[in-house]
């Protein structure tokens, strides 16, 4: 447009209908002027609270979706479970409208500006799998590339993308601790909370066929070695502190 837009109060493209929307809006914005928009036509699923713009962003984007449009949206994890100021009711209405195609929980440290873990929402006007949502828990994926930042490898990204595509094709089988296909009626039983961990469960542990006596003997031996090393380190630390004039009894 000719000038900077204000998404909520001065939408420069009010009639735009998009096939695809990808967004990472500011999280939990409290001063978005919601008190001036309580009767806005965009709030089809409920009036968002004036103290948090998360569901205002979401509904603004939904209002601009074409009949077969899709949204990829990054939001703070609180949006998955909050019930504050009517947010739970808005989430319920969006779920019951069969718009939420998938939720992916991400690990912390993926962003350079914030360290908190976030979630990806995938919202679709015309889901291939009606009445179902895919949940993916990717919190254990990725590798720390330095002390503060984590990256996904191409294999990580492909695994998530392939899982989502397999779901869309109706061929996905649940994997404990990673992914689950959930019907809307089962999301209702969870009070419309969308936290993936509630649905994917805990990863199954590999079978342990080590005999109990052997395991206890091995663990006891390892623990004894740790204790011995601990005493050595304690002695070394005391000697070094003593050398610079600090004696520890």
TrEMBL record:
<feature type="domain" description="DNA methylase adenine-specific">
    <location>
        <begin position="3"/>
        <end position="207"/>
    </location>
</feature>
<dbReference type="InterPro" id="IPR029063">
    <property type="entry name" value="SAM-dependent_MTases_sf"/>
</dbReference>
<keyword id="KW-0808">Transferase</keyword>
<dbReference type="Pfam" id="PF02384">
    <property type="entry name" value="N6_Mtase"/>
</dbReference>
<protein>
    <submittedName>
        <fullName>N-6 DNA methylase</fullName>
    </submittedName>
</protein>
<dbReference type="GO" id="GO:0008170">
    <property type="term" value="F:N-methyltransferase activity"/>
</dbReference>
<dbReference type="InterPro" id="IPR052916">
    <property type="entry name" value="Type-I_RE_MTase_Subunit"/>
</dbReference>
<dbReference type="InterPro" id="IPR003356">
    <property type="entry name" value="DNA_methylase_A-5"/>
</dbReference>
<dbReference type="GO" id="GO:0032259">
    <property type="term" value="P:methylation"/>
</dbReference>
<keyword id="KW-0489">Methyltransferase</keyword>
<dbReference type="GO" id="GO:0003677">
    <property type="term" value="F:DNA binding"/>
</dbReference>
């Amino acid at each position: 447009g000719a000038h900077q837009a204000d998404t909520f109060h001065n939408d420069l493209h009010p009639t735009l209908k998009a096939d695809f929307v990808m967004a990472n809006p500011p999280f939990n914005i409290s001063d978005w002027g919601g008190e001036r928009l309580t009767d806005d036509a965009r709030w089809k699923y409920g009036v968002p609270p004036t103290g948090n713009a998360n569901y205002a962003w979401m509904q603004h984007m939904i209002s601009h979706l074409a009949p077969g449009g899709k949204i990829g949206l990054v939001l703070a994890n609180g949006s998955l479970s909050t019930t504050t100021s009517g947010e739970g009711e808005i989430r319920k209405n969006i779920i019951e409208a069969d718009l939420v195609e998938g939720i992916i929980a991400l690990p912390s440290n993926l962003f350079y500006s914030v360290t908190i873990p976030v979630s990806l929402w995938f919202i679709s006007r015309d889901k291939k799998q009606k009445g179902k949502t895919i949940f993916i828990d990717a919190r254990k994926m990725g590798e720390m590339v330095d002390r503060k930042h984590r990256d996904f490898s191409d294999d990580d990204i492909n695994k998530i993308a392939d899982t989502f595509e397999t779901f869309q094709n109706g061929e996905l089988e649940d994997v404990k601790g990673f992914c689950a296909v959930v019907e809307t009626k089962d999301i209702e039983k969870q009070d419309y909370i969308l936290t993936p961990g509630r649905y994917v469960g805990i990863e199954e542990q590999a079978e342990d066929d080590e005999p109990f006596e052997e395991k206890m003997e091995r663990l006891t031996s390892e623990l004894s070695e740790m204790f011995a090393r601990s005493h050595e380190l304690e002695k070394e630390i005391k000697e070094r502190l003593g050398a610079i004039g600090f004696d520890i009894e």
